[in-house]
């Protein structure tokens, strides 16, 4: 292997290796002599010599009329490599912990029947907040008592809720039930925009409910997917109509 390649493998750039080898063979020399020996333009040689000087591989010879440069002992390279090795060794445990840390894998769960729906609502009640988007039409197969229970849980737990609803008769009646619940915000999608079922964003999960013809809920657990869906939700929320006062 050529010496220039050895130096490059040790961390020097191609021109740095050429200039350092030239100066090693010359001993002490001017920029002109180094440039000639290395086969590099003089203007470039100035820059390379300054870079090598900052790395401790070249020094300026003092007390001479014309600026002269001298190459440092090649062992400086070995010292530099040892210092880098020690630094990597110091932080190696941290790097390994990142490598071995469990990677998030999206999880998809399917809950069937009314009990499955209730299980997901229980998770929602225990979350730090939830964003609904959809319609309440047919979403409570448990009858009017289901809506009352929902309102009681949301009110008692005081979790922040936003609900983006289709502007239908059922949804407007539902909104009236929650008008005085301070932690529940409702907006209506613009005319012509709507949902055929209900969905919810909570934590790192998004749930899609189906109430007809089969009752089930599909839950995706993925922070990446939730972030994307939440961005779309924010756009829809900003353009939605707030619940009229009164």
From TrEMBL:
Q: Where is the Transcription regulator TrmB N-terminal domain?
A: 7-75
Annotated InterPro entries? TrmB-like, Tscrpt_reg_TrmB_N, WH-like_DNA-bd_sf, WH_DNA-bd_sf
Question: Taxonomically, which superkingdom?
Answer: Bacteria
* Pfam families in the record: TrmB
Identify the SUPFAM superfamilies for this entry. Answer: Winged helix' DNA-binding domain
Write the signal peptide boundaries.
Answer: none
This protein's name: Transcription regulator TrmB N-terminal domain-containing protein
């Amino acid at each position: 292997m050529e010496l220039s390649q050895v130096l490059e493998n040790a961390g020097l750039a191609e021109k740095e290796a050429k200039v350092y080898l030239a100066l090693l063979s010359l001993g002490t020399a001017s920029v002109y002599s180094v440039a000639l020996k290395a086969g590099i333009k003089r203007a470039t040689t100035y820059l390379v010599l300054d870079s090598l000087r900052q790395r401790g591989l070249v020094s300026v010879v003092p007390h001479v009329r014309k600026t002269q440069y001298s190459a440092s002992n090649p062992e400086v390279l070995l010292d530099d490599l040892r210092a880098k090795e020690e630094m990597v060794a110091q932080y190696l445990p941290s790097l390994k912990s990142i490598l071995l840390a469990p990677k998030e894998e999206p999880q998809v769960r399917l809950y069937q029947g009314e009990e499955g729906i209730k299980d997901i609502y229980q998770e929602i009640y225990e979350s730090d907040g939830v964003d609904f988007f959809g319609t309440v039409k047919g979403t409570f197969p448990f009858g009017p008592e289901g809506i009352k229970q929902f309102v009681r849980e949301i009110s008692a737990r005081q979790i922040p809720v936003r609900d983006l609803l289709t502007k239908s008769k059922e949804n407007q009646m539902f909104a009236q039930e929650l008008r005085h619940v301070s932690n529940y915000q409702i907006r209506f999608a613009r005319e012509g925009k709507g949902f055929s079922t209900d969905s919810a964003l909570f934590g790192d999960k998004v749930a899609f409910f189906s109430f007809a013809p089969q009752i089930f809920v599909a839950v995706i657990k993925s922070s990446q997917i939730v972030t994307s869906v939440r961005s779309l939700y924010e756009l829809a929320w900003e353009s939605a109509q707030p619940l009229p006062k009164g």
